[in-house]
Design goal:
Length: 207
C-alpha cells in the first residue's frame, strides 16, 4: 500500500470520528435550548360561552369582599331596576343564564334553579339571573321566564356584557353566592356538567 493511499484512509477515519462526536454532542443537549412554546391566546372577546363551568367549586373565597366596582344596577325584563347593593344584608345568588345554551335548557327542564330559588325564598335568599348574551333581548328573557315559570328577575346585561365582565363570568350557567356583601362561592351549579350522573352521585354546590 503506497503512502498516498494510507494518507487518504487516515483522513476518512478522522472525519468519521468527528462526525460521531458531533452527533453524540447534539443528542446530549437539553430541551432548555429550545424556544418555549407560546401559550394559546386567551379568548379576547365574543359572546359568553355556552358551557357549564367546572365540575367542582371554582373557589373557596369565604372571606372575599366584593369591591365597590362590582356593585351593579341592571333592568329586569319588565323594566324594573335591580341594584345589588340594596341586598347587601342578604344572601344573593347570581346565575348567569343563556336561554339558547343547551346546558341551561337542560337545567330548566329539570327545574334545577327554580326549585332551589323557591326552596330558599322564605329564608330571605335573593335569586337574580343575569343574561349577558347578545342574541336574546328583554322580550326573549320575558318569554323564557313565562315558559319556565321563573319567579325571579332575569337582568338585562346585553349591552356588551359589562357586569359579566366585572365578575369574570365566562360560561352559562355560572353561579355566584354572595352572603352579606362577600362572595362565598362561584363556579358550576353541580358536579355533573354532562348531565349523565345518577341522582345519588350528583352534588349541587348551591343547595
Amino acid at each position: 500500500m503506497n503512502g498516498k493511499r494510507i494518507a487518504t484512509l487516515l483522513v476518512v477515519a478522522l472525519l468519521a470520528v468527528l462526525t460521531v462526536g458531533l452527533v453524540a454532542t447534539a443528542g446530549d443537549k437539553t430541551t432548555d435550548s429550545q424556544p418555549a412554546a407560546k401559550p394559546a391566546a386567551a379568548n379576547a372577546g365574543g359572546d359568553m360561552a355556552c358551557c357549564q363551568v367546572a365540575d367542582k367549586p371554582a373557589t373557596n373565597a369565604a372571606e372575599a369582599t366584593i369591591p365597590d366596582n362590582l356593585n351593579f344596577t341592571l333592568a329586569n325584563y319588565d323594566g324594573t331596576n335591580v341594584t345589588l347593593a340594596d341586598h347587601a344584608d342578604k344572601t344573593v345568588v347570581l346565575e348567569w343564564i343563556n336561554p339558547q345554551c343547551p346546558y341551561v335548557v337542560r337545567h330548566y327542564k329539570a327545574k334545577t334553579m327554580t326549585i332551589l330559588a323557591e326552596k330558599y325564598k322564605d329564608q330571605g335568599v335573593v335569586w337574580l339571573a343575569i343574561d349577558s348574551g347578545k342574541n336574546i333581548d328583554a322580550a326573549g328573557d320575558k318569554a323564557w321566564a313565562a315558559e319556565h315559570n321563573i319567579g325571579y328577575p332575569i337582568l338585562n346585561d346585553h349591552d356588551g356584557g359589562k357586569v359579566g365582565k366585572q365578575y369574570s363570568a365566562k360560561t352559562t350557567p355560572h353561579m355566584f353566592i354572595i352572603h352579606k356583601g362577600k362572595i362565598v362561592y362561584h363556579g358550576g351549579i353541580d358536579n355533573d356538567p354532562a348531565g349523565n350522573k345518577a341522582d345519588a352521585d350528583r352534588v349541587n354546590y348551591v343547595d
